[in-house]
From TrEMBL, chain A:
InterPro entries: 2Fe-2S-bd, 2Fe-2S-bd_dom_sf, 2Fe-2S_ferredoxin-like_sf, 2Fe-2S_ferredoxin-type, 2Fe2S_fd_BS, Beta-grasp_dom_sf, Diverse_Oxidoreductases. This is Isoquinoline 1-oxidoreductase, alpha subunit. GO terms for molecular function: 2 iron, 2 sulfur cluster binding; metal ion binding; oxidoreductase activity. Residues 2-78 form the 2Fe-2S ferredoxin-type domain. Keywords: 2Fe-2S, Iron, Iron-sulfur, Metal-binding, Oxidoreductase. It comes from the Bacteria.
Automatic annotation (TrEMBL), chain B:
Residues 193-277 form the Aldehyde oxidase/xanthine dehydrogenase a/b hammerhead domain. PANTHER family: ALDEHYDE DEHYDROGENASE, BLL3820 PROTEIN. This is Isoquinoline 1-oxidoreductase, beta subunit. Keywords: Signal. It comes from the Bacteria. The keyword Signal applies.
């Protein structure tokens, strides 16, 4: 075990864990950021999608040791009050069913829109390809990404 | 006046509590209390949600119903998720698409009773007729006397004898919230900010975490366990061999301080396994089912055999449960489809009075039938009892994929005598399948037939079911047996239609009574799909129907077979009156994606004794880019409120397969891939 300093949601957080501990379990078990969801542990389902240095990443396949000196944003830190355009669009279109995959979907969509403000269906399909939703909310997710894009344009 | 027996009592000073018994779907004289709607003396409204929300949206519908009847906004209703307690709530099981249809009348009645008591209390205070008073926005109003907030009326309302107060439900034409499209899920903000607490997020302080080494092949049990290395690892607290069936499915649990330490501990176990069926192969099982069919079908003419695979539930939240066993009782935190049943089972199994077992119901990250089972809870109880602390048992995704209770394989032989005009005039449907091992009485052929057989068309004939012993764990999977039966029947009818050169919609219309729900829904779906226009070049269309769970649906799918791509799915659905239209559409959309996934390629196979798939890389669930446009039309009717969680899956799968097949016959699920 060793002490690692992580930058999570704009704060410095210290944890005592083995360096090979997946970032996912540090965020959930040590830091209580349970919005980061465990779905597969091997980078296939996207439920834990968070931002590392502003890009969508999978904390389940990143170690703690390699995550120091990166800037980590979880769904809890995406916006102060839950009103990021993506979060608003998700509510306006009533996207969620069970909701378990949605923090990951929201984070993947926010990262997509940050680099491509007006994605077409193909770009959405590509960026969110490995974010699995077992309830089948995909049509609404697609519409909500477009809605969020419009909200961001109107408020720019 | 509501004729149902209404119980009402004051609980504490100045609180108004309305409890109405929940009737079972079938008429029954059993009194099954209580659904609560509570107003405290500050006017705060709290509704108890008796059934778990597994994604079907029951919390939202309960909030809408209570807000509607109490004439307040949906955000004025606080929700409490009921703990397991069948004495109080009756069945709490999320099964057979019953949540909303069984809860609607009792919960609306409870809230309407509260409103009528508040209005009566205000009328008495003002000395005016009740008929001159109305409830709106949390207050009772009178044209000349002004308004009285609910909070000022609660003590007087609680003191009234409810038997003297007529209760009227708000009629649909006066609804402000129910049946409207603007309200989304009440939990939406929590969901998109990560605040919703699922079972996996519900560890009490001081909890340990356990993961279980599970049999490497079906039925294997640990013969010897060397846990020396595991126990030497940091954070590992204990290692425990779990026996079946008292402790779940069996295996060796490693209990540690954190998830990662438990996983590392599991990796360090050295276990010798024995017994079971190390050579099991799902292709052999399918061959066995094929050979279990009678030598000859009872109807001669046209014939087709359909083969259906194993399917896993794979909810996004992996199986988990947390237990704290204390000397005087046990507390469970679990994403369960049946908190009441779980509590009853645990009390019986642990020899405790029900009052010593508390089951806290968490939100479930999907369920699809898997969480009606209690195996993860039994594991957690065994682990917690061992270490005397709260323990969460967490399944990895591979654990979930390889140790599920699978949808049974089946083989269906359909045969029909074709009459004048190419239309079937007599039919037979012979099924060979397995029962559901998680509920042994579900291996009764009559029950399987009743569950799967919903053939709506006017073609005389019969369905016969042969049941073979299940070679692995099988369980309830969305649209239990209907998924398999309807898929075979509708694809068979489609192939007959194609061979006879018939219009698929016209064929079905001709076989349905003109005044039936399905007839009307077919018309609506056909209109939405612009059926009378020829399909675009290279595209094909598939049609299927289902009436079940008290509801009815017609589905038309449009696909490009050469690209193996589904373009559009049109569904027309009749649930009686849709209480939450966005939720109705969501359930249909979800079933369509399940259908797409299972037709395009998701299946479980068994090789060398174990399930070959381990995660979403090889259990090929559909992704966003494969998802068609889904157009759901809600057709209101006078039918009693119907269920919807499962309805759309079987016909959507059939319609999608028929559309993807084009002129080719469909012979199984997935379409165009080897089954098993």
């Amino acid at each position: 075990m060793a002490r690692y300093t992580l930058r999570v949601n704009g704060e410095r957080r210290e944890v005592d864990v083995d360096g090979d501990t997946p970032l996912l379990w540090v965020l959930r078990d040590e830091l209580g950021l349970t919005g980061v969801k465990y779905g597969c542990g091997v980078g296939l389902c996207g439920a834990c999608t968070s931002h590392v240095d502003g890009e969508a990443a999978r904390p389940c396949v990143k170690t703690t040791a390699e995550s120091v000196r990166t800037r980590i944003t979880t769904v809890e830190g995406l916006s102060r009050d839950g009103d990021h355009p993506v979060q608003r669009a998700w509510r306006e279109l009533d996207v969620a069913q069970c909701g378990y995959c949605q923090p990951g979907q929201v984070m993947a969509a926010a990262a997509l829109l940050a680099r491509d403000p007006d994605p077409d269906d193909a770009a959405i399909g590509e960026a969110l390809r490995d974010n699995v939703c077992r309830c089948g909310t995909y049509p609404r997710i697609r519409d909500a990404v477009r809605r969020a894009s419009r909200i961001m344009r109107e408020e720019r | 006046m509501i004729s149902r027996r209404t119980l009402l009592r004051g609980a504490g000073v100045g609180a108004l509590v309305v409890a109405v018994p929940i009737p079972a779907l079938a008429a029954s004289d059993e009194l099954v209390p209580n659904v609560f709607v509570r107003l405290d003396d500050s006017g705060r409204i709290t509704a108890t949600v008796p059934r778990p929300d597994t994604g079907q949206g029951v919390r939202t519908v309960v909030a809408l119903m209570v807000a509607e009847e109490l004439a307040v906004g949906v955000r004025d209703v606080a929700l409490e998720q009921a703990a397991g307690d069948t004495e109080r709530y009756g069945s709490q099981a999320v099964t057979n698409s019953t949540s909303v249809r069984q809860l609607a009348t009792p919960i609306r009645t409870a809230a309407a009773t509260a409103r009528c008591l508040l209005v009566t209390a205000a009328a008495q205070r003002w000395g005016v007729p009740v008929a001159e008073c109305t409830a709106r926005d949390g207050a009772v109003r009178h044209p000349r006397r002004g308004r009285l907030a609910y909070r000022a009326l609660v003590p007087a309302a609680a003191a009234l004898d409810p038997a003297t107060v007529p209760v009227e439900l708000t009629p649909p034409e006066k609804w402000r919230l129910l049946g409207k499209t603007r309200d989304g899920r009440v939990d939406a903000r929590d969901i998109v900010t990560g605040r919703t607490r699922y079972g996996i997020d519900s560890r009490p302080a001081g909890s340990l975490v356990a993961v279980v080494a599970r049999p490497p092949w079906i039925g294997a049990t640990p013969q010897s366990v060397d846990d020396t290395a595991a126990r030497g690892l940091p954070g590992v607290v204990d290692v425990l061999t779990l026996t079946t069936p008292a402790d779940g499915q069996g295996g060796v649990a490693v209990i540690a301080r954190s998830t990662h330490q438990a996983l590392r501990g599991r990796d360090a176990l050295k276990i010798t396994w024995g017994g079971g069926t190390p050579a099991a192969d799902s292709r052999t099982w399918l061959a066995d089912l094929r050979s279990a069919l009678p030598a000859q079908s009872p109807v001669t003419g046209f014939e087709r055999v359909y083969e259906m695979p194993l399917l896993a539930h794979a909810p996004m939240e992996p199986m988990n449960a947390t237990a704290h066993v204390r000397p005087d009782g046990v507390t469970i935190w679990a994403p369960t489809q049946d908190p009441g049943g779980l509590r009853t089972q645990l009390a019986r199994q642990l020899g405790l009075p029900a009052t010593a077992v508390r089951v806290e119901t968490t939100t479930s990250g999907g369920a699809f039938g898997r969480r009606i089972e209690t195996d993860p809870v039994l594991e957690a109880v065994a682990c917690s009892r061992r270490v005397g602390a709260p323990v969460q048992v967490l399944w990895t995704r591979a654990d979930d994929m390889r140790h599920d209770s699978y949808r049974p394989m089946s083989v269906h032989r359909l045969s029909a005598e074709i009459g004048a005009g190419g239309v079937p005039v007599r039919r037979a449907h012979e099924v060979a399948t397995w029962g559901l091992t998680v509920l042994p009485f579900f291996s009764n052929p009559a029950l399987i037939k009743a569950s799967g057989d919903h053939f709506p068309y006017g073609v005389p004939g019969d369905v016969t079911v042969t049941v073979r012993p299940a070679p692995l764990r099988t369980g309830f999977w969305r649209a239990v047996y209907a998924g398999q039966f309807v898929y075979a029947e509708e694809n068979f009818l489609s192939e007959i239609g194609t061979r006879s050169g018939l219009d698929q919609v016209a064929l079905r219309r001709s076989l349905l009574p003109a005044d039936s729900r399905l007839h009307r829904l077919l018309d609506t779906a056909a209109e939405r799909a612009r059926w009378t226009r020829p399909p675009a070049r290279g595209t094909h269309r598939g049609v299927a129907c289902l009436e079940e769970y008290g509801s009815a649906i017609a589905v038309i799918a449009v696909a490009d077979p050469s690209a193996r791509r589904v373009l559009r799915v049109h569904a027309a659905v009749d649930v009686g009156v849709a209480l939450h239209p966005s939720g109705v559409r969501a359930q249909v959309e979800g079933c369509v994606v399940d259908a797409l996934s299972t037709v395009l390629g998701a299946q479980i196979t068994v090789r060398d004794g174990h399930v070959a798939q381990s995660s979403f890389g090889d259990y090929a669930w559909a992704r966003i880019g494969q998802t068609p446009e889904i157009d759901v039309t809600i057709v209101q009717s006078n039918a009693p409120l119907g269920g919807l969680g499962e309805l759309a899956y079987p016909p959507a799968a059939a319609a999608i397969a028929a559309a993807l097949a084009g002129e080719e016959p469909v012979t199984g699920m997935p379409f165009g891939t080897d089954v098993g």
